[in-house]
């Protein structure tokens, strides 16, 4: 009887199924996500500390903050753009961070999908609502009851 | 038979040593408790801890303690080791919660007043005691094509390289594939899909080699969603590497290379 002299490589091709990668991902999404985290992080440091400095330190500092202070800031296109950039960058930065955490820690595909759907919905609501407020904010809406308006509207 | 075969008499030492010096004094010995994580799928699906009380010497390593436990106390204790001198990369294990080579960890450098815990490296399927299935680890290594790929004609002589070009990837040539880095990576622990630091280090070794022509292919492979972008720069890998490779730095350089190629 012929004896096989061929020696099989140990465990050749036998990889525990949970370690198998399902094909290759296409595109550069993860690369741009990574790059966005770095760049938005740097910009956010400037935006957030600028925001905190102007609101809390300049002039009367924290005591100056009231409805009128915020109304005044959003009447200025400079602060509208500043706050808009801060809102969008912070929301996308945070959403991407939580997306990463969900990808890492969700064990089932179903859990992962559900959590990410909730995350994206919540982010979209905040971004849309925030953008709307920044651009349409009117401290003295026409036709509002006089006792609901701040004092400077009567001037 | 002839005078040629007799060994010459050793010449007398030129320095007279005072008695007691250089004579190899007694090596201090002490008792250590070794707590080893045991697992035998033929007996139980659950692992358990075994304690071995051993008398060890000041020159001993964790590997010597494991040998003593296996040879004198419990022959069923299973672990991998080959060269026992920090080169083959067989005996990476989790010692006192840190990934290291048992053959490079001296007992005297650990706190011997407390039990020394020894476990299998994390993130890979345990087969028995301290032995894990390394196949997923090697699969990632194979995927990055860890061999020279050159285009054009085969040169008739050695492929020469300047000292500077060699220096570029010197650090990552030191890898011994012990898996201490990959199995210390919290991202790899989550689902085992990440290529892992070791595969990226070995890709780095060829990507930055001036003689290799397949850098683009390797960068494309590592631009995967399970590739370099899953690195969170926790530096666990750099800390775990028994060869002192700056693993996280190598990963960052590969990220940079992918970016430079795309943008």
From TrEMBL, chain A:
It is found in: Membrane. Its main location: membrane. Signal peptide: none annotated. The keyword Metal-binding applies. InterPro entries: SQR/QFR_C/D (IPR034804), SuccDH_FuR_B_TM-su (IPR000701). The keyword Transmembrane applies. The chain crosses the membrane at residues 31-58, 78-98, 118-137. Keywords: Heme, Iron, Membrane, Metal-binding, Transmembrane, Transmembrane helix. This is Succinate dehydrogenase hydrophobic membrane anchor subunit. It comes from Arthrobacter hankyongi.
UniProtKB/TrEMBL annotation, chain B:
Residues 165-187 form the 4Fe-4S ferredoxin-type domain. Keywords: 2Fe-2S, 3Fe-4S, 4Fe-4S, Iron, Iron-sulfur, Metal-binding, Oxidoreductase, Tricarboxylic acid cycle. Pfam families: Fer2_3, Fer4_8. InterPro entries: 2Fe-2S_ferredoxin-like_sf (IPR036010), 2Fe-2S_ferredoxin-type (IPR001041), 4Fe4S_Fe-S-bd (IPR017896), 4Fe4S_Fe_S_CS (IPR017900), Beta-grasp_dom_sf (IPR012675), Helical_ferredxn (IPR009051), SDH/FRD_Iron-Sulfur (IPR050573), Succ_DH/fum_Rdtase_Fe-S (IPR004489). Residues 1-20 are annotated as: Disordered. It catalyses: a menaquinone + succinate = a menaquinol + fumarate. Its cofactor is [3Fe-4S] cluster; [4Fe-4S] cluster; [2Fe-2S] cluster. Its EC number is 1.3.5.1. It comes from the Bacteria. PROSITE patterns: 2FE2S_FER_2 (PS51085), 4FE4S_FER_1 (PS00198), 4FE4S_FER_2 (PS51379). Binds 1 [3Fe-4S] cluster. Binds 1 [4Fe-4S] cluster. Residues 30-124 form the 2Fe-2S ferredoxin-type domain. The keyword Nucleotide-binding does not apply. The keyword Metal-binding applies. Transmembrane segments: none annotated. It is an enzyme of class 1 (oxidoreductase). Pathway: Carbohydrate metabolism; tricarboxylic acid cycle. Belongs to the succinate dehydrogenase/fumarate reductase iron-sulfur protein family. NCBIfam families: dhsB (TIGR00384), PRK05950.1 (NF004616). This is Fumarate reductase iron-sulfur subunit. It comes from Arthrobacter hankyongi.
């Amino acid at each position: 009887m012929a004896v096989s002299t061929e020696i099989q490589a140990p465990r050749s091709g036998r990889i525990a199924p949970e370690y198998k990668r399902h094909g290759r991902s296409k595109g550069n999404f993860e690369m741009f996500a990574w790059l966005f985290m770095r760049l938005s992080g740097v910009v956010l440091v400037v935006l957030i500390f600028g925001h905190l400095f102007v609101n809390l330190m300049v002039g009367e500092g924290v005591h100056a903050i009231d409805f009128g202070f915020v109304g005044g800031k959003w009447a200025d296109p400079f602060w509208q753009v500043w706050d808009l950039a801060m809102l969008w960058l912070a929301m996308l930065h945070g959403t991407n961070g939580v997306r990463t955490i969900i990808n890492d820690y969700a064990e089932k595909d179903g859990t992962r999908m559900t959590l990410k759907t909730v995350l994206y919905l919540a982010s979209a609501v905040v971004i849309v609502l925030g953008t709307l407020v920044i651009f349409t904010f009117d401290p003295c809406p026409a036709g509002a009851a006089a006792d609901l308006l701040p004092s400077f509207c009567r001037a | 038979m002839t005078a040629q075969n007799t060994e010459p008499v050793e010449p007398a030492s030129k320095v007279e040593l005072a008695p007691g010096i250089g004579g190899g004094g007694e090596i201090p010995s002490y008792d250590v408790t070794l707590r080893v994580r045991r697992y035998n799928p033929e007996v139980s699906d659950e692992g358990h801890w075994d304690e071995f009380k051993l008398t060890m010497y000041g020159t001993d390593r964790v590997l010597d303690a494991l040998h003593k436990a296996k040879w004198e106390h419990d022959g069923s204790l299973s672990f991998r080791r080959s060269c026992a001198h920090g080169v083959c990369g067989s005996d990476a294990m989790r010692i006192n919660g840190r990934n290291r080579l048992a053959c490079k960890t001296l007992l005297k450098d650990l706190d011997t007043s407390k039990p020394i815990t020894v476990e299998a490296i994390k993130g890979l399927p345990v087969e028995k005691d301290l032995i894990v299935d390394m196949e997923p680890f090697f699969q990632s290594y194979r995927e990055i094509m860890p061999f020279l790929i050159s285009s054009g004609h085969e040169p008739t002589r050695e492929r020469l390289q300047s000292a500077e070009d060699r220096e570029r990837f010197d650090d990552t040539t030191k890898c011994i594939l012990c898996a201490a880095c990959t199995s210390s990576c919290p991202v790899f622990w989550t689902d085992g899909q990440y290529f892992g630091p070791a595969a990226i280090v070995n890709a780095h070794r060829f990507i930055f080699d001036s003689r290799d022509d397949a850098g683009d292919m390797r960068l494309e492979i590592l631009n995967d969603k399970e590739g370099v972008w899953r690195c969170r720069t926790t530096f666990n890998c750099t800390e775990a590497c028994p060869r002192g490779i700056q693993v996280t730095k190598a990963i960052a350089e590969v990220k940079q290379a992918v970016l430079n190629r795309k943008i």
